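User: Could you go from structure to sequence for me? I need the amino acid at each position, not a summary. Structure tokens:
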């Protein structure tokens, strides 16, 4: 059996933020590839729907991604060797002049805090040897996002936290690989659709034309994110790069910082 279609039967995956968007796509794809999947989210209804769609291959846990006690408990109880952190707040789409501080800082109090909580947990409640930690940030960290307040800055800080955790894991001799995915804007999730509509209006375009010009025939989707997650775990060559752009056509490694 080739690496490309090998089952992930030895993978115990924990997905944080699994009930919608890219997180849901990743949870379903890993389960279908043979992994044992624990999916964490806040919505009871969305978790029930995910569990049903997973057809017995996904165990769901209701919880807050920023809960440090939950992070430590799940790492101890589930002993994952793959952790995907996808949870985050949906930013408001508006120009800077229309924001309040509370709205501007929401991605910091959710996205950055969740990244901090889980990265700290994997360093202090170590995962199984050879574990993989994948933090899903955003392409906005590279390019900015003038209509989403503090979102781009929060996503850049997530990248820094992943870098710091990677260094600390190496210093401590932990057999732990920390990687970061930066998804492009896409029209196939609620967060992405809001961004596409806002930036299309800003450019004087309808959303379909904006997507076609910006992303061509293969915009990112939850299913494509799931395929990329499976590839990341199956393909040994994908274990080395620290960061990838996550595009509609797949993963593209970014130059190493170090």
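Assistant: Here is the amino acid at each position, in order:
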């Amino acid at each position: 059996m080739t690496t490309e279609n090998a089952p992930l039967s030895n993978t115990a995956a924990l997905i944080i933020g699994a009930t919608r968007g890219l997180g849901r796509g990743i949870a379903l794809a890993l389960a279908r590839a043979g992994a044992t999947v624990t999916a964490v989210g806040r919505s009871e209804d969305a978790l029930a729907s995910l569990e049903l769609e997973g057809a017995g291959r996904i165990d769901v846990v209701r919880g807050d991604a920023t809960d440090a006690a939950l992070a430590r408990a799940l790492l101890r109880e589930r002993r994952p060797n793959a952790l995907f952190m996808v949870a985050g707040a949906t930013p408001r789409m508006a120009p800077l002049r229309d924001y309040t501080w509370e709205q501007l800082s929401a991605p910091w109090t959710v996205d950055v805090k969740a990244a901090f909580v889980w990265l700290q947990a994997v360093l202090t409640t170590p995962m199984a040897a050879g574990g993989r930690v994948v933090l899903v940030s955003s392409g906005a960290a590279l390019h900015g996002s003038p209509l989403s307040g503090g979102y781009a800055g929060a996503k850049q800080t997530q990248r820094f936290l992943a870098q710091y955790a990677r260094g600390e894991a190496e210093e401590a001799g932990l057999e732990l690989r920390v990687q970061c995915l930066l998804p492009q804007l896409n029209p196939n999730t609620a967060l992405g659709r809001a961004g596409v509509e806002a930036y299309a209006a800003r450019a004087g375009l309808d959303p379909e034309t904006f997507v076609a010009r910006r992303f061509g025939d293969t915009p990112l989707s939850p299913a494509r994110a799931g395929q990329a997650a499976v590839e990341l775990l199956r393909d040994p060559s994908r274990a080395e790069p620290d960061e990838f752009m996550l595009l509609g056509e797949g993963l593209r490694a970014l130059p190493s910082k170090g």
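One structural detail worth keeping in mind: The radius of gyration is 18 Å.
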